[in-house]
Amino acid sequence: MKLTVEKRFNDRALLAEQLATKVAGQLQEAIDARGKASLVVSGGRTPLAFFHALSRQPITWSKVLVTLADERWVDVDDAASNAALVRDNLLQGRAASARFVGLKTPHATVEAGLALATDWLGALPKPLDVVILGMGNDGHTASLFPDCPNLKHGLETRDTLIAAHPASQPLARISMSLATLLNSRQIYLHLEGKDKAETLAKALADTDVTAMPIRAIVGQKQTPVDVYLYQEEA
Ligand SMILES: O=C1O[C@H](COP(=O)(O)O)[C@@H](O)[C@H](O)[C@H]1O
Prior knowledge:
single chain; 234 residues; alpha/beta; Rossmann fold; seven-stranded parallel sheet; 8 helices; 6PGL; hydrolase; 6-phosphogluconolactonase activity
Protein backbone atom coordinates (compact mmCIF):
# COMPACT_ATOMS: atom_id res chain seq x y z
CA MET A 1 0.00 0.00 0.00
CA LYS A 2 1.36 3.44 -0.99
CA LEU A 3 -0.87 5.40 1.42
CA THR A 4 2.15 7.20 2.81
CA VAL A 5 0.77 10.02 4.93
CA GLU A 6 -2.56 10.60 6.61
CA LYS A 7 -2.86 14.12 8.00
CA ARG A 8 -5.96 15.02 10.03
CA PHE A 9 -6.91 18.65 10.69
CA ASN A 10 -9.68 20.30 12.68
CA ASP A 11 -8.97 23.64 11.00
CA ARG A 12 -9.94 23.91 7.31
CA ALA A 13 -7.76 26.99 6.68
CA LEU A 14 -4.70 25.31 8.21
CA LEU A 15 -5.19 22.24 6.02
CA ALA A 16 -5.56 24.46 2.95
CA GLU A 17 -2.34 26.37 3.76
CA GLN A 18 -0.29 23.25 4.53
CA LEU A 19 -1.48 21.38 1.45
CA ALA A 20 -0.92 24.46 -0.74
CA THR A 21 2.62 24.91 0.61
CA LYS A 22 3.42 21.22 -0.03
CA VAL A 23 1.96 21.22 -3.55
CA ALA A 24 3.61 24.53 -4.46
CA GLY A 25 7.00 23.18 -3.30
CA GLN A 26 6.61 20.09 -5.49
CA LEU A 27 5.53 22.17 -8.51
CA GLN A 28 8.52 24.51 -8.12
CA GLU A 29 10.87 21.52 -7.74
CA ALA A 30 9.48 20.11 -10.99
CA ILE A 31 9.99 23.47 -12.74
CA ASP A 32 13.54 23.76 -11.43
CA ALA A 33 14.34 20.21 -12.52
CA ARG A 34 12.46 19.91 -15.83
CA GLY A 35 11.39 23.43 -16.87
CA LYS A 36 7.64 22.96 -16.34
CA ALA A 37 5.15 21.29 -14.02
CA SER A 38 1.75 19.60 -14.33
CA LEU A 39 -1.03 19.90 -11.77
CA VAL A 40 -4.28 17.94 -11.89
CA VAL A 41 -7.12 19.18 -9.68
CA SER A 42 -10.64 18.00 -8.89
CA GLY A 43 -13.97 19.75 -8.66
CA GLY A 44 -16.57 19.75 -5.90
CA ARG A 45 -16.85 21.94 -2.79
CA THR A 46 -13.87 20.50 -0.91
CA PRO A 47 -11.00 22.20 -2.80
CA LEU A 48 -12.17 25.84 -2.58
CA ALA A 49 -10.06 27.00 0.40
CA PHE A 50 -7.11 25.02 -0.95
CA PHE A 51 -7.46 26.67 -4.39
CA HIS A 52 -7.39 30.11 -2.77
CA ALA A 53 -4.32 29.24 -0.68
CA LEU A 54 -2.52 27.70 -3.67
CA SER A 55 -3.19 30.73 -5.87
CA ARG A 56 -1.24 32.86 -3.35
CA GLN A 57 1.89 30.69 -3.47
CA PRO A 58 4.97 32.44 -4.92
CA ILE A 59 6.06 29.93 -7.58
CA THR A 60 6.79 30.32 -11.31
CA TRP A 61 3.15 29.92 -12.30
CA SER A 62 3.80 30.66 -15.98
CA LYS A 63 5.54 27.25 -16.13
CA VAL A 64 2.60 25.34 -14.59
CA LEU A 65 0.02 23.49 -16.69
CA VAL A 66 -3.21 22.91 -14.78
CA THR A 67 -5.89 20.42 -15.77
CA LEU A 68 -8.79 18.46 -14.28
CA ALA A 69 -9.18 14.90 -13.08
CA ASP A 70 -12.73 15.02 -14.44
CA GLU A 71 -15.32 17.35 -15.91
CA ARG A 72 -19.06 17.48 -16.47
CA TRP A 73 -20.03 17.73 -20.16
CA VAL A 74 -21.29 21.29 -19.86
CA ASP A 75 -20.11 24.61 -21.28
CA VAL A 76 -17.25 26.27 -19.46
CA ASP A 77 -19.57 28.99 -18.17
CA ASP A 78 -22.07 26.55 -16.69
CA ALA A 79 -22.32 26.56 -12.88
CA ALA A 80 -21.56 22.80 -12.94
CA SER A 81 -18.30 23.26 -14.87
CA ASN A 82 -15.11 22.31 -13.03
CA ALA A 83 -13.20 24.54 -15.46
CA ALA A 84 -15.26 27.51 -14.22
CA LEU A 85 -14.56 26.54 -10.61
CA VAL A 86 -10.82 26.41 -11.28
CA ARG A 87 -10.84 29.62 -13.32
CA ASP A 88 -12.71 31.54 -10.60
CA ASN A 89 -10.93 30.11 -7.55
CA LEU A 90 -7.45 28.88 -8.51
CA LEU A 91 -6.32 30.75 -11.63
CA GLN A 92 -6.38 34.07 -9.82
CA GLY A 93 -3.72 36.39 -8.39
CA ARG A 94 -0.25 34.87 -8.76
CA ALA A 95 -1.71 31.72 -10.36
CA ALA A 96 -3.39 33.70 -13.15
CA SER A 97 -0.34 33.13 -15.34
CA ALA A 98 -0.65 29.32 -15.19
CA ARG A 99 -1.83 27.62 -18.39
CA PHE A 100 -5.15 25.83 -18.07
CA VAL A 101 -5.89 22.78 -20.23
CA GLY A 102 -9.58 21.87 -20.02
CA LEU A 103 -11.33 18.60 -20.81
CA LYS A 104 -14.58 19.94 -22.35
CA THR A 105 -14.37 20.13 -26.14
CA PRO A 106 -17.00 21.74 -28.42
CA HIS A 107 -18.33 18.29 -29.39
CA ALA A 108 -21.93 17.37 -28.59
CA THR A 109 -21.04 14.19 -26.73
CA VAL A 110 -18.19 13.07 -24.50
CA GLU A 111 -17.47 10.15 -26.82
CA ALA A 112 -17.02 12.54 -29.76
CA GLY A 113 -14.73 14.80 -27.71
CA LEU A 114 -12.42 12.16 -26.25
CA ALA A 115 -9.79 12.26 -29.02
CA LEU A 116 -9.41 16.06 -28.95
CA ALA A 117 -9.32 16.25 -25.14
CA THR A 118 -6.69 13.50 -25.17
CA ASP A 119 -4.63 15.56 -27.66
CA TRP A 120 -4.89 18.59 -25.38
CA LEU A 121 -3.54 16.58 -22.44
CA GLY A 122 -0.54 15.64 -24.57
CA ALA A 123 0.87 19.10 -23.67
CA LEU A 124 1.26 18.12 -20.00
CA PRO A 125 4.60 16.83 -18.72
CA LYS A 126 4.38 13.14 -17.69
CA PRO A 127 4.51 11.62 -15.22
CA LEU A 128 2.07 14.20 -13.91
CA ASP A 129 3.76 16.08 -11.08
CA VAL A 130 0.86 16.49 -8.65
CA VAL A 131 -2.68 15.04 -8.76
CA ILE A 132 -5.26 16.20 -6.21
CA LEU A 133 -8.27 13.93 -5.90
CA GLY A 134 -11.52 14.14 -3.99
CA MET A 135 -13.88 11.32 -3.13
CA GLY A 136 -17.64 10.91 -3.00
CA ASN A 137 -19.44 9.02 -0.27
CA ASP A 138 -20.19 6.30 -2.82
CA GLY A 139 -16.42 5.75 -3.10
CA HIS A 140 -16.02 7.48 -6.48
CA THR A 141 -12.95 9.49 -7.34
CA ALA A 142 -12.47 11.66 -10.43
CA SER A 143 -15.54 10.38 -12.38
CA LEU A 144 -14.78 6.71 -11.76
CA PHE A 145 -18.16 5.99 -10.17
CA PRO A 146 -19.24 2.56 -8.91
CA ASP A 147 -22.38 2.86 -11.07
CA CYS A 148 -20.56 3.70 -14.34
CA PRO A 149 -21.49 0.97 -16.85
CA ASN A 150 -17.91 1.16 -18.21
CA LEU A 151 -16.14 1.40 -14.84
CA LYS A 152 -14.05 -1.71 -15.61
CA HIS A 153 -12.81 0.03 -18.77
CA GLY A 154 -11.86 3.12 -16.75
CA LEU A 155 -9.92 0.98 -14.30
CA GLU A 156 -8.15 -1.16 -16.92
CA THR A 157 -7.64 0.92 -20.07
CA ARG A 158 -4.37 2.54 -21.10
CA ASP A 159 -6.45 5.32 -22.73
CA THR A 160 -5.90 8.74 -21.16
CA LEU A 161 -9.58 9.61 -20.72
CA ILE A 162 -12.93 7.85 -20.57
CA ALA A 163 -16.52 8.87 -21.10
CA ALA A 164 -18.53 8.34 -17.91
CA HIS A 165 -22.29 8.02 -17.60
CA PRO A 166 -22.89 7.18 -13.93
CA ALA A 167 -26.49 6.09 -13.32
CA SER A 168 -26.58 8.28 -10.18
CA GLN A 169 -25.51 11.47 -11.98
CA PRO A 170 -27.63 13.84 -14.09
CA LEU A 171 -24.77 14.90 -16.41
CA ALA A 172 -22.38 12.98 -18.62
CA ARG A 173 -18.75 13.31 -17.61
CA ILE A 174 -15.23 12.93 -18.95
CA SER A 175 -12.66 11.46 -16.59
CA MET A 176 -9.01 10.58 -16.42
CA SER A 177 -8.60 6.82 -16.45
CA LEU A 178 -7.00 5.08 -13.48
CA ALA A 179 -3.82 4.56 -15.54
CA THR A 180 -3.55 8.32 -16.17
CA LEU A 181 -4.12 9.22 -12.51
CA LEU A 182 -1.46 6.74 -11.41
CA ASN A 183 1.06 7.95 -13.99
CA SER A 184 2.03 10.66 -11.52
CA ARG A 185 4.73 11.47 -9.02
CA GLN A 186 2.37 12.33 -6.15
CA ILE A 187 -1.34 11.96 -5.44
CA TYR A 188 -3.15 13.83 -2.67
CA LEU A 189 -6.56 12.72 -1.50
CA HIS A 190 -8.27 15.81 -0.05
CA LEU A 191 -11.33 15.08 2.09
CA GLU A 192 -13.66 16.98 4.38
CA GLY A 193 -16.09 15.76 7.00
CA LYS A 194 -17.02 12.82 9.20
CA ASP A 195 -18.84 11.10 6.32
CA LYS A 196 -15.73 11.15 4.14
CA ALA A 197 -13.58 9.90 7.04
CA GLU A 198 -15.99 6.98 7.44
CA THR A 199 -16.03 6.33 3.69
CA LEU A 200 -12.22 6.28 3.63
CA ALA A 201 -12.15 3.82 6.55
CA LYS A 202 -14.62 1.59 4.67
CA ALA A 203 -12.50 1.82 1.52
CA LEU A 204 -9.36 0.82 3.39
CA ALA A 205 -11.10 -2.15 4.99
CA ASP A 206 -11.66 -4.09 1.73
CA THR A 207 -10.26 -4.52 -1.78
CA ASP A 208 -13.24 -4.63 -4.20
CA VAL A 209 -12.43 -1.69 -6.49
CA THR A 210 -15.66 -1.96 -8.48
CA ALA A 211 -17.68 -1.36 -5.29
CA MET A 212 -15.50 1.62 -4.31
CA PRO A 213 -13.20 2.88 -7.10
CA ILE A 214 -11.20 5.00 -4.61
CA ARG A 215 -9.69 1.65 -3.51
CA ALA A 216 -7.78 1.60 -6.80
CA ILE A 217 -5.99 4.73 -5.55
CA VAL A 218 -5.52 4.02 -1.85
CA GLY A 219 -4.75 0.33 -2.35
CA GLN A 220 -2.08 0.57 -5.06
CA LYS A 221 1.72 0.49 -4.78
CA GLN A 222 2.76 2.53 -7.83
CA THR A 223 2.29 6.14 -6.70
CA PRO A 224 2.51 7.77 -3.24
CA VAL A 225 -0.85 8.89 -1.86
CA ASP A 226 -1.05 11.40 0.98
CA VAL A 227 -4.46 11.90 2.59
CA TYR A 228 -5.38 15.37 3.92
CA LEU A 229 -8.57 15.15 5.96
CA TYR A 230 -10.44 18.01 7.59
CA GLN A 231 -12.94 17.01 10.26
CA GLU A 232 -14.60 19.31 12.79
CA GLU A 233 -13.98 18.38 16.42
CA ALA A 234 -16.97 16.51 17.87
O1 LIG B 1 -18.50 14.61 -8.36
C1 LIG B 1 -17.46 14.92 -7.89
O2 LIG B 1 -17.31 14.82 -6.54
C2 LIG B 1 -16.04 14.66 -5.94
C3 LIG B 1 -16.15 15.17 -4.50
O3 LIG B 1 -16.88 16.39 -4.47
P1 LIG B 1 -17.14 17.19 -3.07
O4 LIG B 1 -18.17 18.26 -3.40
O5 LIG B 1 -17.61 16.22 -2.07
O6 LIG B 1 -15.84 17.82 -2.72
C4 LIG B 1 -14.94 15.35 -6.74
O7 LIG B 1 -13.69 14.97 -6.26
C5 LIG B 1 -15.03 15.02 -8.22
O8 LIG B 1 -14.02 15.70 -8.96
C6 LIG B 1 -16.36 15.46 -8.72
O9 LIG B 1 -16.53 15.10 -10.07
